[in-house]
Design a protein that fits this description.
The chain folds into two domains: about 240 residues, 3-Layer(aba) Sandwich (Aspartate Aminotransferase, domain 2); about 130 residues, Aspartate Aminotransferase, domain 1 (Alpha-Beta Complex), CATH 3.90.1150.10. It has a seven-stranded mixed sheet, with helices on both faces. The chain has a four-stranded antiparallel sheet with strand order 8-9-11-10, covered by helices on one side. It is α/β, with parallel strands linked by helices. The protein is built from 13 helices and eleven strands. The radius of gyration is 22 Å and the shape is globular. The longest helix has 20 residues. The chain starts with 10 loop residues before the first helix and ends with a helix. It catalyses: L,L-cystathionine + H2O = L-homocysteine + pyruvate + NH4(+). InterPro entries: Cys/Met-Metab_PyrdxlP-dep_enz, Cys_b_lyase_bac, PyrdxlP-dep_Trfase, PyrdxlP-dep_Trfase_major, PyrdxlP-dep_Trfase_small. It comes from Terrihabitans soli. Keywords: Lyase, Pyridoxal phosphate. It holds the Pfam family Cys_Met_Meta_PP.
């Protein structure tokens, strides 16, 4: 529900208006940055009755509320909490759904630090993790145990972008009393709303497209009515807090996210199609392409695609691959993505237990907001250097 209580609008209108109430800010368009820990009660009666809108700066403030209300409206959620990073959002969501002795199912395609958390911290806590083929769909039903409490999905998956059949997975999970979590960082709620497709919790690394400028670390978790009470309690018990300046920057980025995502989408599809025709490329992994194995599911459930995808090069000497990477001028080499700049990083699938092991070097590309022709020219020049 929006802070203004108005009816749902189109996605671009939602991005501009959600969580924003200028009348409460003396007419200023943006909610100010509230720096503060202590909040004063007006009277002893209010103190004893805890009669106050904001009780402590860690739990809530007008700045926090502006972003959480906006995200709840965009996600069609009962509530949203913020975390200091995308990984923190993932781990908090997992802690909110499991107890010692529980079993969880996690897609083999998840973000690797998520996998590390399951294999270390959750394991020490007595939570068992089983990794499943992200392409299972309804067949995931055969993997449930009596103590399976949750299924973690990420669609499209990290690195090779498998699209999961979230409605089928959610139906199987809910029949057995398990909750479904979805890492929705790739699409954002602008292109996909996991809670509308059966997920109970939707997770985002707001570091990426929400912030959009490669200068903020922030995460969010939005939950439906069933999952919200325990998520809210867990988040509070962990003492998580995000700095108000980072929240303000995330709010500012949110307002232009639709415009940026549309540009990322057009540019990435164009570059991906160009790469499909390159003799050095064995395959392009982008759900928005007709040739991608997950294209039908993506087309059914998603309203768009972001700027992140991968390619597999044909087998080449390691030195040649490094020459290609070093020859690029517009593509930076660095982790994370979702900013205005184009990026490229090599990767392997050694951590995966259920995945085709490629013959050639895998590269993940994020297509930024530069001119498409300039990006293609940069890649073409790098391929020429690689060949030479």
């Amino acid at each position: 529900m929006s802070r203004t209580g108005k009816s749902k609008k189109g996605p671009d209108t939602e991005l501009v208006s959600a969580g924003r109430d200028p009348s409460a800010q003396h007419g200023f368009v943006n909610t100010p940055v509230y720096h503060g820990s202590t909040v004063l009660y007006a009277s002893a009666d209010d103190l004893f009755a805890n009669r106050i809108r904001y009780s402590y700066g860690r739990r809530n403030s007008p700045t926090i509320e502006a972003l959480t209300c906006a995200l709840s409206e965009l996600e069609n959620a009962a509530g949203t909490v913020l975390a200091p990073s995308g990984l923190s959002a993932v781990t908090t969501a997992l802690l909110s759904v499991c107890d010692a002795g529980d079993h969880i199912l996690v897609a083999d395609s998840v973000y690797h630090p998520n996998r590390h958390f399951c294999d270390t911290v959750l394991k020490r806590m007595g939570v068992e993790t089983s990794y499943y083929d992200p392409l299972l769909g309804a067949d995931i039903a055969g993997l449930f145990k009596p103590n399976t409490k949750a299924v973690f999905t990420e669609s499209p998956g990290s690195l090779i972008f498998e699209v999961q059949d979230l409605p089928a997975i959610a139906e199987a999970a809910h029949k057995r009393g398990a909750l479904v979590l979805c890492d929705n960082t790739w699409a954002t709620p602008y292109f996909f709303k996991p809670l509308d497709f059966g997920a109970d919790l939707s997770i985002q690394a707001g570091t990426k497209y929400i912030s959009g400028h490669a200068d903020v670390l922030i995460g969010s978790i939005s939950a439906n009515q069933k999952a919200w009470p325990r998520l809210h309690a867990t988040h509070g018990a962990l003492g998580l807090s995000v700095g108000p300046d980072d929240i303000f920057l995330a709010l500012r980025g949110l307002r232009t996210m639709g415009v940026r995502l549309k540009h990322h989408q057009i540019s990435a599809i164009t570059v991906a199609r160009w790469l499909e025709g390159r003799p050095e490329v064995a395959r392009v992994l982008h759900p928005g392409l007709d040739s991608d194995p997950g294209h039908a599911l993506w087309k059914r459930d998603f309203s768009g695609a972001s700027g992140l995808f991968a390619i597999e090069l044909k087998p080449a000497a390691d030195k040649s691959v490094r020459t290609f990477l070093d020859a690029l001028e517009l593509f930076g080499m660095g982790y994370s993505w979702g900013g205005y700049e184009s990026l490229i990083v090599p990767f392997d699938l050694k951590a995966r237990t259920i995945a085709h092991k490629p013959a050639g070097q895998m590269l993940r590309l994020h297509i930024g907001l530069e001119e498409i022709a300039d990006l293609i020219a940069d890649l073409e020049s790098a391929f020429a250097a690689m060949k030479a």
